[in-house]
Structure formats: structure tokens, C-alpha cells
Amino acid sequence: MTVTTSTAPISTAPTSTASTRLVAAAVLAAPVFTVAAVVQAATRDGYDITRHPVSMLALGGLGWVQTTSFVVTGLLSVAGAAGARRVLQGGRGRTWGPILLALIGVGLLIAAVFRMDASDGFPLGTPAGRLTTMSGHMILHNVGGSLSFFSMIALCFVLAARFGSAAQAGRRGWAGSGRVAGVLFALGLGWAMTGGQGGALTLFLGVAVAWNWIAAALTVLQRGAGHGAR
């Protein structure tokens, strides 16, 4: 007697669904951070986005809002790194893409734990003028912020390189816009670090442009992976 056995195909749907949700978490982080910052900048008394970095919104009675923004977007970015690893497999950026995305999240979490020092009239009641010295917790905050900033800039170029590959033919415009986003952020960050006029604003705009471009790029790559594109 011959016994015939059959093996049912292994479904990859749960993994794909999990990957999609994780990437969606990373995509959500950018607009959440941007909207939270804009709303607070428009409503917090004494805050001037041309002079005060967004991180200073974590100070004062309503500082918990910005701290929560750091924590939520940091966790979303770290979670999204796992999904990005699957989306970026088999092409450029498959190694550094997820690593950089995770580092963005880690930097944000560090920034949430360690706050900036009050200065330049914010929160209300703080003497005018810039700081001449920094506390230890502000130094650590800057370390976290720098980790996120430089990781965002690098990720723009990593994803741009993937769009510029032969496997992504027809999406070369994304490659160009990614490089532009990375350069704009680098310029805005550099201007802020040198103490240039309106540096806090150029820094925020750089973050908003680069991070939201990353979110859009991950969305496009996720859709491509769902159709078998690599």
C-alpha cells in the first residue's frame, strides 16, 4: 500500500503582517513628533521656535508633553527597525537601514530622560541670554539628540542609495529627494550648532524634512516589498 503525504505550504502572512505593522510604527513617529512640536510651539507661553530648540519644550509645567513625544516616537522608531530589516532585505541598506532607525529611537529615549537646561527666557521667568555652561544632564541630552540627528541624516542617504539601485528603477526621483533631505538637515544642523541666527528653527525644519522623508520612503519600500519588489 502506498501512503501519500502532502505538505501544506507554510504561510508567511503572519510575518508579513507583523512586519507591516512595525514599519507603520516607524512611519508614524515622524508626523507625531512634528505635529506635537508645532502645536506646542504655537501654544506654549514664552516659547520662540526661532530661539528655543524643540527639546526645551520638555521644561516647565507642560514639559511632560514633549517628554512623552520623545518616549513615544523613540519606541516607535526602535520597534520599526525590526520591520525595516524585512522590508530592506535583499538590497542596499539591508544592514544599516534598520540599525540607523534603531539609533534614532535610542537617541530620542536618551533625550527624554535627560533634559536641556532652562535658558534665554524659557520657561517663563528664566533670565534672558544663552547658557555659558551646561549641566551634565544637558550634555547627555545633547548626546542623545546628536545620535538621532546624525542617524537621520545617514538614513536619508542609505535609503536614497537603495532607490538609486537598478532594482528600484523608476524611483530615481526618490533617490534625489533623499539626498536633498539629508543635505538640508545637515546644513540646518550645522547652522544651529554654530549659533547662527534662527538656528533652532533651521534645526527643527531639518528634522521635519528629513524624518518625514524617511517615513514616506519606508512607506514606498513597504508597498514594493508587498508586491515582491526588492
From TrEMBL:
<dbReference type="InterPro" id="IPR009339">
    <property type="entry name" value="DUF998"/>
</dbReference>
<keyword id="KW-1133">Transmembrane helix</keyword>
<protein>
    <recommendedName>
        <fullName>DUF998 domain-containing protein</fullName>
    </recommendedName>
</protein>
<feature type="transmembrane region" description="Helical">
    <location>
        <begin position="173"/>
        <end position="193"/>
    </location>
</feature>
<keyword id="KW-0812">Transmembrane</keyword>
<feature type="transmembrane region" description="Helical">
    <location>
        <begin position="57"/>
        <end position="84"/>
    </location>
</feature>
<feature type="transmembrane region" description="Helical">
    <location>
        <begin position="199"/>
        <end position="221"/>
    </location>
</feature>
<dbReference type="Pfam" id="PF06197">
    <property type="entry name" value="DUF998"/>
</dbReference>
<feature type="transmembrane region" description="Helical">
    <location>
        <begin position="139"/>
        <end position="161"/>
    </location>
</feature>
<keyword id="KW-0472">Membrane</keyword>
<feature type="transmembrane region" description="Helical">
    <location>
        <begin position="96"/>
        <end position="114"/>
    </location>
</feature>
